[in-house]
Amino acid sequence: MRLTWAQPEDLLAHEFVQSAAEGRDVTSVRERWIAAGGDPVPAVSGAGPRPASPALRALARTLLDELAALPAAPSPGEPDGWDEILALLPAAPVLPRRAEDRTLGAWTGRAAGCLLGKPVEKIPREGIEEILRATGRWPLDRWFTAVGLPDDVAARWPWNRRSAPTSLEENISGMPEDDDLNYPILALTLLERHGREFTTDDVAQLWLEQLPAGRVFTAERAAYRNLLDARPVPETAKHLNPFREWIGALIRTDVFGWVSPGDVRGAARLAWVDARLSHTRNGIYGAIWAAALASAAMVVDSVHSVLDAAETVLPPESRLAEAVRFGREAAAYDDGLDRLHARYGDLHWVHVLNNAAVIAYALARGDGDFGQSISLAVTAGWDTDSAAATVGGVVGALVGVDWIGEQWTKPLDNRIATSLPGGEQRITDLAARTAGVAR
């Protein structure tokens, strides 16, 4: 069985990158792995093409333990604890606490953005552009299609295997199942059960109860395994988890902002409680930033005000804060995406830093235009569905469901499929439940 995001030989290659980013000297461990015949290049899709021999897999386990025992460089500007994060933050912004309900636009926008990016997830930026040019849709301003796509282009850039049957213009029928929507639905259930005082253990229990193991990925798959191994928080986020600063926690936290309109600090705290189950440092910051974006989008009137407010929950010296600032600055240039790729092109396509920069770029450059904003997030070519989902949620809340546009809303048919218990959900019902929790 080719199991992604879990085999020791695949985890080790990713851990070389993550440990080096944390200031560990991985040189000798890496050399031993190469000398034994191991591949030090991380697998793009989560698993290498060939399983390791029993001896090589055993060595990978040993080397992972050795890397974990190495001291990391001090990082006072990037703490994990909430109190330590708070101590680094500027004063919280004073935002309006409006009674206006924007939850339907937020849920709808998140679904539409996610759906736009699904068929090209894992396809690099140049492949997305070639597909669009070949089908007469460059620059992107509508759903992807396979109609008219030349065979050679299709062979060079195959659609995402799981998404192509449900996410192209000719076959969309409601929002198909996706982890970017499973997690917000799960967060809503969490809040309905436990209120705003839920704990990280409550999050863990709900995962084990409702999330199919095969529908969690990267850091979440590692944390899930650690839960089954009876490891406590925050060890769940660290043990054999080289994906601890990737995007997984960022995609889980919009609902915490939607139920905290104008309270970006409160939304960030809820996101921290959730994120620490599976992530550390910038992985956590991505989650609290996404929650703050969602919170601000419920009460202010422009994406720039949203971005300003959300930055106040980020440790100012963190790499996540730097990525967000860089993304916003890149939006001022016609070659902004080139600048993002020059800066962050060495990172895996699911890392939090490059994708946060894209989210900031797409929001700032799109300037409140829903279609343009989600299209920019997708054509960046990293985690296309996740980045566009976050962007879509923000802009959808700002403009409202009627101004998202029927082009984007009608194919959703007010339906979101899910692998969670209870099956398909109506978007209007999710919005009403979210508004109820917020009240």
From TrEMBL:
It holds the Pfam family ADP_ribosyl_GH. It comes from the Bacteria. Keywords: Magnesium, Metal-binding. Transmembrane segments: none annotated. Mg(2+) binds at residues 383, 385-386. Signal peptide: none annotated. GO terms for molecular function: metal ion binding. Its cofactor is Mg(2+). Binds 2 magnesium ions per subunit. This is ADP-ribosylglycohydrolase.
